[in-house]
């Protein structure tokens, strides 16, 4: 076992750390995470548009169209915000003008993903003559196009800056004016490049990427049990190595997660039942049903520690309970520790795999609804599961059942580790008493 731990430290951790800190992967992760406040705010409007109380629904019925606007302009145009966030983050890492790069990337994305539709005649009470953009073209389905256009746009801008192919203004010109002129040549090249690709050659980048990557999305963040288990395993495995699991997996899995919950929310808004939404394995499925107290379902371990005979484990458990209740578990992961600890690392990985499988089968048999909304991660799991599944009581109960399952799985491993800790504390106490006696 020690040899395996040493192999992970020497061979695997450097590779994982290098991948997780790679410049473009970091930019994707930061850019997508930056959209989270918008999607959460939009999700609250969706949740409160669908409270299953007849009197309430009748009261808000005249205002539904107005209440729908916040979610359409948050989750509904997610890719547009992601483009700016990713480009701005990458530009910052290169020490380029992040505002300029973000704007140029948004331009490139709109040219690529959202060609305007021209309407020549008024449609009574619906639409007037003019040019229109379909919001669906800049929503979550275009996230992969957003990622590519953001990264490529910044790299083009960086190339022109490095080669000094820019329009320079005299000294004394304000920086914001100077930066605008510096961006003229690279901006023109970016515009022409994506315009030619999309509208002259006729190559649909978003359509191509969707076709290419959709099988992977359907596996990792759709309805595949294998894909769900693989995601859970990798996140927990990296945590056991001492590496932030979602940070490593984020650039790969987060675009799929964002697409999946957006698809579910849109389908729910359009009248689909929460038992018949497009995707089971959303990030919210993991957050509320599996990560009870944080990755690895560590709230169960924290509760066991609170009643431990070990002074250290009891103190740490009591200190970790309140953060764990709100799904923050770094204190227990690094304080127990779970990192590089084979005894606690096993249930940390195994327990979520079992509860994922159990929750999946309850979902496909329509006992438990699917997730229809994205809520802040710091809401206690039973409450968030209840709200995210259109106020489903069985969903809240499943969280409690999964907690008990995890508690049972952790218990024997915890007792082994507790015994080791008690022996260590006894040795330290004996050494301290011996030192005092000698003095």
TrEMBL record:
Subcellular location: Cell membrane
GO molecular function (one): protein-N(PI)-phosphohistidine-sugar phosphotransferase activity
Transmembrane segments: 32-53, 73-91, 98-115, 135-160, 181-201, 221-241, 288-312, 332-351, 358-379, 391-414
Alphabetical GO biological process terms: carbohydrate derivative transport; phosphoenolpyruvate-dependent sugar phosphotransferase system
Membrane-topology descriptor: Multi-pass membrane protein
Gene Ontology cellular component annotations, sorted alphabetically: plasma membrane
Protein name: Permease IIC component
Organism: Enterococcus moraviensis ATCC BAA-383
């Amino acid at each position: 076992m020690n040899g395996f731990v040493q192999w992970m430290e020497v061979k695997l951790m450097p590779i994982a750390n290098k991948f997780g800190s790679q410049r473009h992967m970091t930019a994707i992760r930061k850019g997508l995470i930056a959209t989270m406040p918008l999607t959460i705010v939009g999700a609250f409007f969706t949740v409160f548009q669908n409270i299953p109380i007849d009197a309430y629904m009748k009261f808000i019925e005249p205002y539904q169209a107005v209440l729908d606007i916040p979610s359409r302009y948050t989750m509904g145009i997610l890719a547009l915000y992601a483009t700016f966030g990713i480009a701005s983050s990458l530009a910052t890492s290169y020490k380029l003008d992040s505002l300029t790069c973000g704007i140029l990337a948004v331009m490139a994305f709109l040219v690529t993903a959202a060609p305007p539709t021209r309407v020549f005649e008024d449609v009574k009470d619906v639409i007037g003559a003019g040019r229109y953009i379909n919001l669906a073209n800049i929503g979550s389905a275009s996230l992969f196009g957003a990622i590519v256009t953001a990264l490529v746009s910044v790299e083009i801008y960086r190339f022109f800056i490095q080669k000094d192919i820019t329009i320079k203004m005299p000294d004394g010109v304000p920086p914001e004016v100077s930066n605008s002129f510096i961006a003229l040549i690279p901006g023109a090249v970016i515009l022409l490049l994506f315009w030619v690709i999309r509208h002259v050659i006729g190559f649909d980048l978003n359509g191509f990427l969707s076709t290419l990557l959709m099988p992977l999305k359907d596996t990792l963040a759709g309805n595949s049990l294998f894909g769900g288990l693989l995601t859970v395993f990798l996140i927990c495995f990296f945590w056991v190595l001492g590496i932030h699991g979602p940070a490593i997996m984020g650039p790969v899995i987060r675009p799929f997660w964002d697409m999946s919950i957006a698809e579910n929310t849109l389908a729910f808004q359009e009248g689909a039942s929460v038992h018949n939404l497009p995707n089971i394995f959303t990030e919210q499925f993991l957050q509320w049903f599996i990560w009870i107290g944080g990755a690895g379902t560590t709230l169960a371990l924290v509760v066991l520690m609170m009643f431990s005979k070990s002074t250290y484990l009891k103190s740490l458990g009591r200190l970790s309970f309140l953060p764990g209740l709100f799904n923050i578990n770094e204190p227990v992961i690094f304080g127990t520790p779970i990192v590089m600890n084979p005894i606690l690392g096993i249930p940390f990985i195994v327990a979520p795999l079992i509860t994922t499988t159990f929750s999946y089968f309850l979902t496909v048999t329509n006992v438990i609804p699917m997730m229809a909304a994205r809520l802040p991660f710091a809401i206690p799991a039973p409450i968030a599961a209840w709200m995210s599944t259109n106020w489903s009581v069985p969903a809240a109960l499943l969280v409690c059942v999964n907690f008990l399952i995890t508690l049972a799985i952790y218990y024997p491993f915890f007792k082994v580790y507790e015994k080791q800790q008690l022996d260590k504390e006894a040795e330290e106490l004996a050494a301290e008493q011996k030192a005092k006696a000698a003095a």
